[in-house]
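hey so i finally got around to running the thing on that chain from the lab meeting. sorry it took forever, my laptop kept dying and i had to restart like 3 times. anyway pasting the input first so we r on the same page abt which one it is
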Amino acid sequence: MGKKTEATLVRKPWLDFTTDAAFLLLSIISIYYCFVEDAGNMILIWLALVVVGIYVVVHISGALGTFLSRRWLSGALFGDPLSSKITHRKFTAQCWQLVVHVGMAYLEYQAVKKINWVDEPHLLGPPAKHLNIPIDRDVINVYVIQSAIWIVTGLSHRFVEEHHKDYYVMYFHHIVTLAVVSGSRSRGLHLYGTVIFWIHDVSDIPLDLMKICNLLRLHGYSCFFITEISYFVTVGVWVFQRLYRLPFWLLYSVIIDSTFGEFNGRRTFCSDAESNGTVLDCYILRFSTALLAILLLMHIFWTYLLLRIARRSLYVGEDAHVVGREEYEGHSSDDEQYANSSRITDKSKKVK
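ok and heres what got predicted. didnt touch it at all, straight out
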């Protein structure tokens, strides 16, 4: 029997070993490529900066969250939502993730804003076709910082954070992302990777805000439906970025470049690779295409979880706060306590 960390998660030793080994190997490869790109010192510095940055954000957000919870949200309506150590830890973890996603989304946009990749996504590929063309330093910096972030957050996900019901899916997402990072940078496809980072980070921002609002119990008429509004914004941005832009812009373009010899009058990535005698480049691109397809499947799974929140809240009539936490984190005693207190409050209102 595996060890239970939550009511809905059973740890599996063989799966832990496999995912840990894959994560360690890909982390080493990512660091190796940083040294290849003459950014060895930079990756070491950023690994330290990410750890320190997370530590600072956790303590600052923790202090602000405690003040807000005790000072403004301590009444019967909210019940001091961050009084539980588990909820407080989840709140601080979500805050530092929000800071990371906002910061990286900005850097990634700055790195690719000169390229009209929205209308012509194949323009993200030329550096790999002509390896004598240097890759923009801003793009390399994004890769170095992202490598540091994914390594540190992967370790945090494995050893520090609460293990939610989608623990293995999230861990596998870290592994696949590191594989995409390594595969794209090994063939000079940094621009493709940077846009993929951007698509992920932009869609994570409203999700982080929604989770923070839900942890603070800012829902319902008395809070101007803040959590509910953030939920619908999250679904809209999430679906547009991860279920439209990723498959129909990025993945579509990569499939064309890895499959066809010519498309719309232009030579594709694989046709250039075959004529230049670098067929390995084409195989790696095809492998990266498969990884992107796996990421897309995980996004569909998370979209399903998001839509389940709406179904259970709107049609079944369950408490949105409890449903949101159960769908993404699993059932907890905090949810039971909050649900019971909500029922008591409702009864007292009826009596009055």
